[in-house]
Fold this sequence. Notes:
stress response, four-stranded antiparallel sheet, HSP20-like_chaperone, ACD_IbpA/B, alpha+beta, A-crystallin/Hsp20_dom, 160 residues, Molecular chaperone IbpA
Amino acid sequence: MRATVDFAPLFRSSVGFDRMLNALDLASRIPTVDNWPPYDIVKTGEDDYRIDMAVAGLAEADLTITQERNTLVVTGRKAPEPQSAAEYLHRGIAGREFERRFDLAEHMKVTDAHFENGLLSITLKREIPEAMKPRRIAITSSTARAEEAVPQIEARKEAA
């Protein structure tokens, strides 16, 4: 049995985190039933991530990756196999259809997808726009500000 977490105190003391808190609340309520295909999420750098999915039994043409806003969707649909004379006594390699969704943080972009030996690797990078990056603000003293505010008029002295 899962413990229920009350996020109400966080809503009262934080500003702008409502989307994240709603996602946490929703994730704690939804039971995870489907665990196929297995996957790993790896942090490879400060702003770099990789999702590795084991999709044995599927070909590259059977996989579709789409990113829409802050959601990454990986879909696998195996093309129907032609009838063969082979009779399976045990079929343990899953080739079933799946759709796996990943909620992405703001400014996450898929930079690469690579499929090799039944392993799908999706590389992601957080690309924060220049306007949103931290910047240093210059501090001026009040005396410098006062001098700038009052224009100084200098009289020219003409030689007689």
